[in-house]
Amino acid sequence: MSALESTATSSLRTFRRILQTPPDIRTRCFSVLNRPQPNYPGHVPLNLIERGALAIGSAFGSLKNPYRHDLIAALGEATAKPYFVSRLRRAMLANPTGRRILKDKPRITSKSMDLEKLRLLPENTVGRAYAAWLDREGVTPDTRDNVRYIDDPEEAYVMQRYRETHDFTHAITGLPVIIEGELAIKAFEFANTLLPMTALSLVAVVRLKAIERERFFSTYLPWAIRNGVQAEEVLNVYWEEELETDVDVLRSRLGIEKPPDLREIRKKLREQKRADKASRETVTNAADGVV
User: Fold this and answer.
1) What is the pTM for the complete model shown?
2) How many Å apart are CA 175 and CA 224, to the nearest integer?
3) Between the chain's N and C termini, which has fewer beta carbons within 10 Å?
4) How far apart are the C-alpha atoms of 44 and 151, rounded to whole Å?
């Protein structure tokens, strides 16, 4: 059999297998002109080819620029199906608080979160820590993109909830938005949620400096895996009801250890570098004076 005949036979075999799939899947695979109607406001139905292209394009784009939240969001949605976001929904349905969240469908926005009131809460409360973290990092609750590419409305909400509560995870751990801190949070979230996007985001570790990579692998990755596995599902936290809870109490209840303060570590390293530089300059000046 020639190479051409072999290719044709293989293509025919593949086509026959496709014809054996349910009609709705065949339509989604082959007809972009016969696109289904949106299932909720903003929904963009995708066929399998489009979903694959979205996953690949957003993966490369977010690696090139890890601050492109729109690409990271698209990557998360493109890779969440067919299993992972469904697993999260089942985990929420199996939990009393998770079921209430799915029933109420609260949203975390600047309208639902009164940041002025949160700033007045007692020190070390969840709400105060959340507002302080937003202020320190220069972000708002409205910086999270709306879900567009997940077909099931309730699963779309699950992904939206994960996205909007991401900053609370930052707040109770104290990890900053810088790449090193974001990678630690993504590693924690992967161990806790199994969402592929959180694992794929870890490829950005190549962008870290050598000392940052060493610190990530020796300190923050072990912390993330250990705590992500042992902690309760963070999606089952009704954050709106925990705003006056002490951060240490909530971390203890969830089974999350506070990681080493990354900002403080980086600050001490900068101070040490300045001190070493000043010492070298002093030695050099003294030597020049002797000469």
Assistant:
1) 0.79
2) 11
3) C
4) 8
Longest dimension (CA), the chain: 89
- Write out the chain's pLDDT in tens, 291 residues: 555 445 445 544 554 554 455 544 444 454 556 677 898 999 988 888 888 888 888 888 877 776 677 888 888 888 888 889 999 999 999 999 999 999 999 999 999 999 999 999 999 999 999 999 999 888 888 888 899 999 999 999 999 999 999 999 999 998 988 889 999 999 999 999 999 888 888 888 988 999 999 999 999 999 999 999 999 999 999 999 999 999 999 999 999 999 988 888 888 888 887 887 777 777 777 666 655
In the chain, where are the structural domains located? 48-262
> Two tokens at 260?
């080493």
Q: Which residue has the tokens 């708002």?
A: 140
| Residue 62 contacts residue 75 (beta carbons within 8 Å) | yes
155 is in an annotated binding site: no
DSSP letter string, 194-242: --HHHHHGGGGGGGS-HHHHHHIIIIIHHHHHHHHHHSPPGGG--GGG-
The 8 Å CB, 24+ separation contacts for 48-51 are: 51/78, 51/81, 51/149
Phi, psi of 246 (to 5 degrees): -65, 135
d(CA 223, CA 209) in angstroms, rounded, equals 20
The verdict on whether residue 182 carries a ligand-binding annotation is yes
Among the listed residues 17, 15, 81, the one whose alpha carbon sits nearest the alpha carbon of residue 54: 81
